[in-house]
Write a structure and sequence with these properties.
The chain folds into two domains: 6-122 and 220-293, no CATH class; 133-205, no CATH class. 72% of the residues lie in helices and 5% in strands. It has helices at 6-22, 26-42, 46-70, 94-120, 123-131, 135-164, 174-205, 223-244, 261-286, 288-293, and strands at 77-84, 88-93. Strands 1-2 form a two-stranded antiparallel sheet.
Length: 294
């Protein structure tokens, strides 16, 4: 599995998110989500991709349904119904449906960007990277993340012990159930306080906050990181240049715009650094010698 430097993945994620939010052109948005889906497939994360798309699909359907109901803009009327107070005559337009669908795809794309960040970098590397610049915040987030998991395990363990001791935690009466759960919460609270004291003693014994922070291993930016960062900034430069010459703009209201061949040509140019990045990621993930070479 290819693992990139956290700084590289942050740059790629920010630029991809900016491009997704900046463009409203249907073909551009479809290309963006196609690039993200291809990245997951190239990295061998089909299961994670499937789960993300499965849960995001219902959000897209919900947006497609709600947007035509609250927006009467558009001239291509598909259905016109009864008149409502204040709102006026109820109607569903093609423009509202298409706009809702594209906004739903943009939301899915942003979600895929965040999931892709977790795939392309290691969690420990991310904490190590951020700890150099915000060590207190990083430590707090790390401890909070660990605490949630530990609390869940602790509650499960205490509940099993209490059931063995005869506690009835499945009482139908709400007051009896609260009374039955009181010892569980008491034990978990005491255990959490003891854990907090142990962590505080551990930090104190390691002289946390006294002097410059040391690390066991240093994160190094490799050649592939420099290449992907460079390609990302080329992609960002093309976006800025395209905006200056009005490429990739699109309007849904009052009528869907027709596609311009200049926008399609510019999308082909815009896709070059993205396709090179995708090919490089695929090559490094498939051939080990290329991974260690760059």
């Amino acid at each position: 599995m290819l693992r990139l430097h956290p700084f590289t993945v942050i740059i790629i994620s920010l630029i991809l998110s900016f491009a997704i939010l900046f463009y409203n052109h249907p073909i551009y948005i479809l290309f963006m989500i196609g690039f993200l889906i291809s990245s997951f497939i190239m990295l061998g994360e089909n299961k994670r991709l499937k789960n993300t798309l499965k849960y995001s699909f219902f959000t897209v359907i919900l947006i497609i349904i709600i947007n035509p109901l609250v927006s009467n803009s558009g001239v291509t009327v598909i259905y016109q119904g009864f008149r409502l107070p204040i709102i006026g005559r109820f109607k569903i337009t093609l423009e509202a449906i298409v706009y809702g669908g594209i906004m739903g795809i943009k939301l899915v794309s942003i979600t895929l960007v965040f999931v892709l960040y977790g795939v392309m970098t290691n969690v420990d590397d991310s904490f190590s990277f951020f700890s150099k610049y915000a060590h207190r915040l990083t430590l707090t987030l790390s401890m909070a993340t660990n605490l949630i998991h530990r609390l869940r395990l602790e509650i499960t363990r205490v509940k099993e012990v209490m059931v063995l001791r005869g506690a009835k935690l499945d009482e139908k009466n709400i007051f009896k159930r609260i009374r039955a759960y009181y010892p569980v919460l008491k034990v978990v609270m005491i255990s959490s306080l003891e854990g907090a004291l142990n962590r505080a003693e551990a930090l104190y014994s390691k002289s946390y906050g006294k002097g410059k922070r040391t690390v066991y291993t240093e994160l190094k930016i490799k050649s592939i990181d420099y290449i992907l960062i460079g390609l990302s900034f080329i992609f960002l430069g093309l976006i800025i240049y395209g905006a200056s010459i009005n490429r990739g703009s699109y309007s849904y209201y009052p009528m869907l715009m027709s596609y311009k061949y200049k926008d399609i040509i510019f999308l082909g140019i815009l896709s070059i650094p993205m396709l090179i990045s995708l090919a490089l990621i695929w090559g490094c993930n498939k051939w080990k010698f290329l991974k260690y070479k760059v």
